[in-house]
Design a protein that fits this description.
single chain, alpha/beta, TIM Barrel, two-stranded parallel ribbon, 15 helices, globular, GH, Glycoside hydrolase family 1 protein, Glyco_hydro_1, hydrolase activity, acting on glycosyl bonds, GH_1_N_CS
Amino acid sequence: MSRSSFPEGFLWGGAIAANQVEGAYQEGGKGLNLADVLPGGKARLRLLTEPGFNFEMDRDTYTYPNHEAIDFYHNYKEDIALFAEMGFNVFRLSIAWSRIFPNGDEKEPNEEGLAFYDRVFDELQKHGIEPLVTISHYETPLHLIKEYGGWKNRKLVDFFERYVTVLFNRYKDKVKYWLTFNEINGAVHFPLFGLGFSATSEETRLQETFQGLHHQFVASAKAVQIGHDIIPDSRIGCMLLYAPTYSYDSNPENVMHALEEGRIFNFLCGDVQIRGAYPRYSTRYFEENDIDIEMEEGDLQTIAEGTVDFISLSYYMSRTEKKDKTAEEASSGNLIQGVKNPFLAASDWGWEIDPTGLRIALNELYDRYQLPLMVVENGLGAYDKLEEDGSIQDDYRIDYLKNHIQAMKEAVRDGVDLIGYTAWGCIDLVSASSGQYAKRYGFIYVDKHDDGSGTQERRRKKSFYWYQDVIRTNGENLEGPAGE
């Protein structure tokens, strides 16, 4: 057998987010957050993109699957035992801000919320699993949204600083790896998710979005500095939603358009958080789009002094761009639009499948920044069928993940410093983009359905045993256990 391309000590595991798995949305002193008022089903994506969402629940019209989710809050011991059985040595999870500060602006934290995550981290430690913690993952406390306008308001920097200081002090002996904001650049397309506000209008969207992002850049940089001070051996990273951007053809106009679109989406946030300064190309972009960022004295110095230690990314799809695309050419399935790529197949939800794009992404990021990389989200949302014998034969998921892990191998051979991989939705959860149980990602099947039915019983899918063998061989064997 040839030597594995993954280094010794490579971090293998899975990833979830609090708002998509925990449930117990009003237990343990938790306050309401953004995810609690986002409905499931087709309405969710519309509400995410249209101005004017009112942040109120409408139970007569919608369902709210995040309220129960898969009840990780009460089932975390069973779930972590299953992760350990697969061989995880890392588990990416997020902390629900409103479990720690129910409104977000209190002076003192909620002890019940802190104690819950103590129990989770202790359980992970018992099984030898390293926690990788996202501090803010699409769940801004609802009070901060309604009372302050979300991240448009500078005051959220101070509230976030108080929040992270509590986390670092409480968990300094339990958590080494941290991420500040999940998919921070996703706000360019979906400000509601990451910034906690719905744009006033399409005309004001970019101004509001980049003002909110500036506040997050400052907050993230402060968090890095606070974390390094409280936990000297901590490693604190950024997290990007990465989609390498291709030109539709070799027309130079389309090539330039793809470069501009990809640079703003893929690199601007990374340049600030990793290099510690706004990139020069942002000046022209801000001028041409009437974006005038209000800064306080010392902001740029804070950003310069609070750069991250490593880069994490989600990778689901690439993006193909054409300057003058028609409505018919626009790719409706891809989360980040563009035009349809004729060379790629798509998932059940229309997301184009491009394993080579992951190799491209890793090379682009490492060539640009020369910092360690970690793929912390990658997976296939699909319809899973429970067979008569109780099995789930998800060969399509195995094929997807096998090809993407092979692409990571190639990137490592290219010279990329890749330190870890956490497959998204290692256990079935509520999809962020669609608010559905039916869009399943996990190696572990959860008996819960969009109509509210289900026992919450956990079952190992075929991919469970496949990934177990991938981890056991440090990525050397991607074909599955012997005998299959």
